[in-house]
Design brief:
Chain lengths: 355, 355
Amino acid sequence: MNSGRTGANLTAIASALNVSTATVSNALSGKGRVSAELTEKVRQKAAELGYVPSVAGRALRTGKSGVLGLVLPDIANPLFPQIAQAIEKAAAAAGYGVLIADSHGDVAMQTQAINRLIERGVEGMVVVPRRGTRIGTVDCPVAVIDSPSTPGNTVSADHWEGGHQVGRHLAELGHDRVVIIGNNPDSNVQNDRIGGIRSGLTNAAHTEIVWISALEKQNGAGCPLGVADKVAQGFTAFAAVSDLHALRVLTELQRDGINVPEQATVTGFDDLIWAPVVTPALTTIRMDMARIADVAITALVRSIDMESPDNSPVSGGVVADISKVVMELIVRHSSGPNNKKQANNKTSTAGERTS
Amino acid sequence: MNSGRTGANLTAIASALNVSTATVSNALSGKGRVSAELTEKVRQKAAELGYVPSVAGRALRTGKSGVLGLVLPDIANPLFPQIAQAIEKAAAAAGYGVLIADSHGDVAMQTQAINRLIERGVEGMVVVPRRGTRIGTVDCPVAVIDSPSTPGNTVSADHWEGGHQVGRHLAELGHDRVVIIGNNPDSNVQNDRIGGIRSGLTNAAHTEIVWISALEKQNGAGCPLGVADKVAQGFTAFAAVSDLHALRVLTELQRDGINVPEQATVTGFDDLIWAPVVTPALTTIRMDMARIADVAITALVRSIDMESPDNSPVSGGVVADISKVVMELIVRHSSGPNNKKQANNKTSTAGERTS
DNA sequence: CTGAAAGCGCTTACAG
DNA sequence: CTGAAAGCGCTTACAG
């Protein structure tokens, strides 16, 4: 225990000052039950002795560990850093520590991870569920971050609306033959994004979906996507549901001698770390993870506080809040007007560029 | 507290079975002080009641929280997922939970983050220090993962040797005019890698370093690196100290119509998520994070166990172990023979390809 | 404004 | 093989 380290505990401070531990505790917690002068003396002595309160003692007494859990489907996911960082920050602001657990994309391990966290005494947890998983009954409040179309979702980006922005952006640039690049048709997030993209395009637009996972099952991981063929077939834009896939499209196009954005537009999702540094920089959509994390943590903390007074036997479970956080379109250089159409069509509004 | 949740604690089990809590505790911990039959009965009752031991009670009594801290310079770093995943796994295997802390690349916040972890009662921590930071005195064992040339480093990849492999690979492909792409000259890791790259090239090789941070300070973030000019000047290979920079080089070359690897070879570092999926796939160097994490956690746990019996007043501090973990070269398609040289030089050994 | 006392749940010598 | 008792450090009614 930390407090065993330097040996300074409440008793040490109390006896050094010839007061009771109750007084020291009250002084330190600043509830105003102790005179100002004594409070000051206690504070000084505590600092002098390098007092660090024992979380174990406090937890045992109050029944609150001050720790939240974060369960992720796969820490190796490129989006994870953003999520973890935002959750850690929001939790710290609310006075909680964050214990991580990786479910390695496996449903059984997800359950194990959740149980490990429970055993470690977390008061609540944030779960980013594995694709298509539904969180069973958990013995503490749970906030789920997935997609608005996931039953039991607590908060997430409005992926559909984000897709809509992408679709509209492409429509404004005059694109009406668009290849949508997805990975896995079982993902709610991806389906939301794809639905949004379609809805933002003009009614006359022709779209085609390429599912990478299906393609790779046939041709092996890392196989070509055949994007140059699509360009030859008259497609002028590629809208990927992730910057990872957008990057794959971009480099494959470039390697095949197709200029982006002059000959083909590429858009991604999530504003991952490489989006601004590749050439041409990737047009993408960013979610406001800080806000999502705030909503999740706030909902979690409220739920924790609500269940602690009354001793309802088992009150845990998913915190339903269903907030959708709006996404932000970031237009960079990988998207441009449909040059094929340009000749006989004047409606295309050139997209403004940010960099 | 978790244990308050279902109400089942040792006492509940003990009274249900008309035995003492000591016996229940001994039975459950399996130290063999209890008869086999009673142990079995206790186990069943515990399961029946959904008993979850209270970490707070145990921690208070034993003085061990069972939690380790992980301090990262910047969670948004693309390498972070690998590190966090490996540390979490190694810690879980050793029976520890992992509390995360983000120092946001700031020295002051790094200290704060460390203190927060101490207050949360971690028994030890793994720190990936901010560039150039030295960890001050910390009140618990600390394992530092940085680079072998960082004073006080506990374990890390052998970045120099990894660079050496890259240099040798390039030399074998016949490259003797190489641009090295670094970001920050203050980074031990980067300097190790660069030193290694140079050492692996032939003595006659000409190298030039481009520091991205310096370039961006002049020309703004995301500015062109001018790699096409380098090719025009006769450079045939670009060795970046990170896949992120390698990606930047690759896309800039492609955008300028230069074919990789036919006209220029590109190599990276770290085998980040996009390395295998871009076209051409990136030749890179991978560190064995699982092994690094194992060494770090093992060292940490040993140090924790050593200091607990004797009550040395302040025994925390950096665990010095200085293990170098070898890196693995992964040859993909972004590196190829020096075609300029090929004509009048037969020594180049065509690199084997893995994919 | 301050103190004595109880108790959170656990483990561990110590007796029997 | 089993039990009674103490105590880890804290907070919180309850007295004074």
